[in-house]
Design brief:
Helices cover 42% and strands 18% of the residues. By secondary structure, it is α/β, with parallel strands linked by helices. The two termini are 48 Å apart.
Length: 426
């Protein structure tokens, strides 16, 4: 298996410089994260990349190399005897899909992308919008990957792997070059790990330019494979990764990327989906940036205390911003419940007119907002003639919730409050 060198990454950067579809994304200091972590936190805003993800970098490099015949350093071609590429095939949960689609369109060739049926609708439609044919197959990325390989059955059709491809990894590595150019005093760079192409490329570039910079990879608990892979000495896979960070739910790394991680990455940490949801919410509130789950895991690592970065200059990579509204609503609701800003308040009433209005008036007087309400009469513990009104109430936090509960009780209502912990096991 060929490796990836700093020279490969530098050549990828030169190709990208000649293309309008790969952008140099900005960095921005986060005051709130810096204060929380006791460090200088500088966000790498890769979610503002065209297509909303770093994947454009690797896809453009790989497609360009295919169309050019994978030119070697001396100007000869590796694929001179092969027919010209007419179509590329890829498998993706969404971001690689868009990168390959736009790169293929730029190169004037066709693209077929296989995506899992669970892929976010926004990513599916965006991929189609870039001109690719989208095939939905399987419940998770591994099944989509297996099917995609069967479609590359013609010499003029080439399969572009999302991470197990040196050209893909070299393209992603251009992000590492940018980080060091923009934040030359960086002490730690934090990036997510799905298949390992991003962290492998970044780490290769960073360590070649400055070996003293610490490179940290992050996985979610429900999609964690690197720790087991490093321990076993070979890639360990998951058939059904379970995480809200769908962009890194690849189910495993490859021999190529595991080797790069082993050689260049200093530390790999895990975060929970709760940590990711909290990071998405904080980035929205404080940094005014909307990122997807995979794009937030580097910040989740900072918030979870999994890393000691006190006194350092830290660069978390916000690698993607392609989150659909339905997923965003679910994530934010979960984060609000976890922060006790969304409370379920159950009020036992006797059936009679005007009760809902009375309770709503009390809640409104405490400046809380009722999101939903349901009327339950069929619970087995309900006496005849009684009912439960279950309110989903938005508050400013635990203290505000307690004021709402106290106000209802002072008016004589029988009130029960379901806590975040209780909701998590229901």
């Amino acid at each position: 298996m060929p490796g990836v060198t700093i020279a490969d990454i530098e050549r990828a950067a030169e190709r990208a410089a000649d293309a309008e579809i790969v952008q140099r994304t900005s960095t921005e200091r986060s005051r709130s994260l810096s204060e929380r972590c006791g460090a200088e936190v500088v966000l790498k805003m890769e979610h503002l990349q065209r297509t909303g993800s770093f994947k454009t970098r690797g896809a453009y490099n790989a497609v360009s190399r295919l169309v050019d015949g994978r030119s070697t350093e001396d100007g000869e071609t590796d694929g001179a005897a092969e027919p010209p590429v007419e179509r590329v095939v890829a498998a993706s949960a969404g971001n690689h899909a868009q990168g390959v689609a736009i790169a293929a369109r730029e190169a004037g060739i066709d693209a077929t992308i296989v995506m899992p049926e669970s892929a976010p609708g926004t990513k599916i439609e965006a991929t189609r919008g870039y001109g690719a044919e989208v095939v939905l197959h399987g419940s998770a990325f591994p099944a989509a990957m297996s099917h995609a390989r069967t479609l590359a059955d013609d010499p003029a059709v080439r399969f572009i792997h999302a991470f197990d491809d040196p050209d893909i990894v070299a393209g992603q590595g251009t992000l590492g070059l940018e980080i060091l150019e923009q934040v030359p005093d960086a002490d730690t760079v934090i990036a997510p790990i799905g298949g390992g192409g991003l962290i492998g490329g970044i780490a290769t570039a960073v360590k070649a330019r400055n070996p003293d910079v610490r490179v940290v990879g992050v996985q979610t608990e429900g999609a964690s494979t690197v720790a087991a892979s490093l321990e076993k000495g070979e890639p360990v896979s998951l058939a059904e990764p379970d995480t809200i960070a769908d962009g890194i739910a690849t189910g495993g790394v490859s021999e190529l990327t595991l080797g790069l991680i082993r050689e260049h990455v200093d530390e790999v940490v895990e975060v929970s989906d709760d940590d990711v949801a909290a990071a998405i919410l904080l980035l929205l509130e404080r940094a005014k940036q909307m990122v997807e789950g995979a794009g937030a895991v580097s910040v989740a690592a900072l918030l979870s205390d999994a890393l000691d970065v006190e006194g350092e200059t830290v660069v978390p990579v916000l690698c993607g911003g392609n989150i659909d509204i339905t997923s965003l609503q679910e994530v934010l609701t979960h984060a609000l419940v976890d922060r006790r800003q969304l409370a379920e308040v159950t009020v036992r009433i006797d059936e009679g007119p005007g009760k809902m209005g009375e309770i709503s008036t009390v809640i409104g007087a405490e400046r809380a907002n009722i999101r939903t309400v349901r009327h339950e009469r069929s619970r087995p513990d309900l006496p005849v003639g009684d009912a439960d009104l279950v309110f989903e109430v938005e508050t400013n936090g635990p203290a505000h919730t307690e004021r709402v509960l106290a106000a209802l009780r002072s008016e004589g209502f029988d009130v029960r409050h379901t806590t975040a912990e209780e909701e998590s096991v229901r």
